[in-house]
Amino acid sequence: MSLEQTLLADRYRIERLIARGGMSDVYLAVDERLDRQVAVKVIFPHLAADKRFVDKFIREAKTAAKLNHPNLVNVFDQGTADGQTFMVMEYVPGMTLREALHRF
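Above: the chain's sequence. Below: its structure in token form.
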């Protein structure tokens, strides 16, 4: 199920899918409150139904939010809305790690 062109948590306007992984989709979005582009990582619905997985995802968000390094993206928010468990991160345009590994 694509979230494109939806408003997540009454704040994040989802624009388009930018990456897909084994556990989640990552979308380019606009934080309408702060008027900036962000990346929104949304776990797949079948994984969101697993409390242990959601707990792990939340721990990942909390751990990542504590890190501060110029080579790491910042985590701005985490939550659940409309049945979607998500993490909001700094958007950095460019290639994905997977693309970089294949290129070099």
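The chain is about 25% helix and 40% strand.
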